[in-house]
Amino acid sequence: MKLLPLMLTAAFGMISAAHAEDGYDLWLRYHPLEKPALESYRSVTNIVVEGRSATSKITSDELVRGLSGLLARKVTVGTKMRCDAVVVGTPTSTPAIASYKLPLDKAGSEGFVIRSVETKGCKEIVIAGNTDVGALHGAFHFLKLVQTRAPVDHLDIASAPAVKIRLWNHWDSIDGRSGRGYAGSSIFNWWEMPQYMDPRYTDYARANASIGINAVMPAQGASRYTMSPAFLTKLAALADLLRPYGIKVFMSASFSAPIEIGGLKTNDPTDPGVAAFWKTKVNEIYQYIPDFGGFVIKSDSEGAPGPSQTGHTQAEGANVVADALAPHGGTVLWRAFVYSDVNPEDRIKQEYSEFKPLDGKFRDNVVVQSKNGPLDFQPREPFSAVFGAMPHTNLGAEIQPTKEYLGFETHLVYLGTYWQEFFQTDTYGKGPGSTVAKVVDGSLFNRPLSAINGVGNVGSDRDWCGSTFNQANWYAFGRLAWNPADSAEAIADDWIKMTFTADPAFVKPVKAIMMSSRETAVNYMTPLGLTHQMGTDHHYGPGPWIDDVGRPDWNPTYYNGANKGGIGFDRTAAGSNAVSQYAPEVAAQYSDPKKTPPALLLWFHHLPWTYVMPSGRTLWDELVIHYTDGEKEVGEMAATWQKMKPYVDAERFNKTADFFEIQKSDAKLWRDASIAYFQSVSGLPLPAGMAAPEHPLSYYKALTFPYAPGHEPVLKRAKLPVADPIPASK
């Protein structure tokens, strides 16, 4: 008889383990609310959805799933109007919605209106859109309100996306590799498609739709494969699955496709045969995918072919593809990540020099897509000078949730603060208040097309992103793509409550960790405006001494400029004069080290080690203190997380705690190795109270990381990049 309780205990333990939280549910974690919160939603008992489209069915299913879980009771769905109901639809699908006289003119084709109403003594919450997709976005927003314990008695919300194309860009190959592998392999198994469509694709679609992402590029790859009928059949099956969620597919394309698969001898954009190729191929794609979004094209960069090879401009290259897409409503996202190893100009000036003279020469269905900074997603960069400088061109932003330079999957670095800093920076492109956000959403210069592209970190790991906190960057991308003026703190607050708990004892300290985490990473990696100081082949760990990569601008020494006389890169008129590419108000600030924000000081100035900082300390002392503070701050973050154990399931708590141990170790490595190198150059003593590096410089120089994700040893010391003629691009 004594065995029975033991057997039941063991069985219960097995069930618990099988249902352990592993992060798969993301922020769509519809666990029951606590009793006080449940009381606030007692009137939500029914759902009315009269629409019969596939999107309407998805909407009703999501509301039933979400509200039944959150409210811990059965929530029914029907087509007849009832009291205490959530009414969802469009004026067309649900005639009663038209009678409410909602401000749907503010919703556009993808937005929504949510309003609490009372009719004949019945209380209702109306979620309406001009389209079924808009209503779906509204349903997800309403579920977010319940998840975050917001009051719903007096709702009056109207929301529409500020940006038209909100693209999640997978850094994946069609053979299953995923970027640098930070979250496992690609979630897309093209080998099995279209016969088998993994149910995970549906959950992926739900996650994207819940934050307003309306486009995905599922794979990078050579056009000779991705434009083939065999692959288009697979891509069409994915497009069919995503369509009811309001998501279009885009495709990566090589500019040399006319040669690779068209049998032509040239990819000259002015050649009639090249134009005919693009027209024929685009027409074929639309036969498979009637709502195909368009192409993302990388040209003339890192070995990728481009129009310069035939003596033509980026505008001519983009326009020949755009002309083929235009009759179908398709778009070209033309990446401005263009630089040449034979160009002696300061690397960060090359994008502006290439594209500024072409302002106004791109078709209206081309978006010139610039990275947030002029280099490459570094821990901190100033905004790229093209923002605000091309009023006659659609200018989109490319940002990187992947964290290639910000700690891979193991470092907790919330990027919402990074992107907020970028979007809210004033370009002065049309006077004060000309923020990057207003450039990107098209409002500053009244541009017809807008786009934000996120190089995504979603992979086959059960938690999708390699760690729980990396999910916050996927979530923040969607929120900021919908509204670049949104608050990083408000986004973090919502994500924490949806992903973990709304208990203030957890939310407040964890939000503090997230909000400070990016600055902490900058401190231990690249303080005071230093940049590109990582190991060059793996992008993991410090390498400020590296100077033997074939091209100068792939060497950290190129960027730190450290010598006996000082440190930094002079980009004033006395140096590369990169400051001249900014509006006069910005250039004046960046030209004077006394006016330049300390966070960007060494980006724009080469200064003596003894230069006196605003703190009164010397530049050398300040640099050492920032590195030290970064390491210390990671330890404080880890200690705070340990106090959160009572509020978090064991699986997610333990993984995060273990990752903090990695981050602590890495922060110490960055701190010690960087100080060891720069001290060997400056010859100066450490500030009082600062610990010496644990090892001599030779130790750090000898470290190798052949097992780091995305290791690229073949590129390490080549005179020129060694790459496939059509390399996968981020």
List keywords for this structure.
Chitobiase, domain 2, single chain, 730 residues, six-stranded mixed beta sheet, alpha/beta, 37% helix, disordered N terminus, TIM Barrel, Alpha-d-glucuronidase, C-terminal Domain
Short account of what is shown:
This protein folds into 3 domains: 24-159, Chitobiase/beta-hexosaminidase domain 2-like (Chitobiase, domain 2), CATH 3.30.379.10; 165-499, TIM Barrel, CATH 3.20.20; 523-715, Alpha-Beta Complex (Alpha-d-glucuronidase, C-terminal Domain). It has 23 helices and 14 strands.
Characterization of the model:
This protein has 730 residues and is α/β, with parallel strands linked by helices. It is built from 23 helices and 14 strands. An 8-stranded parallel β-barrel has the order 7-8-9-10-11-12-13-14. Helix 11 links the parallel strand 10 (294-297) and strand 11. The longest helix has 33 residues, at 650-682. The termini are far apart.
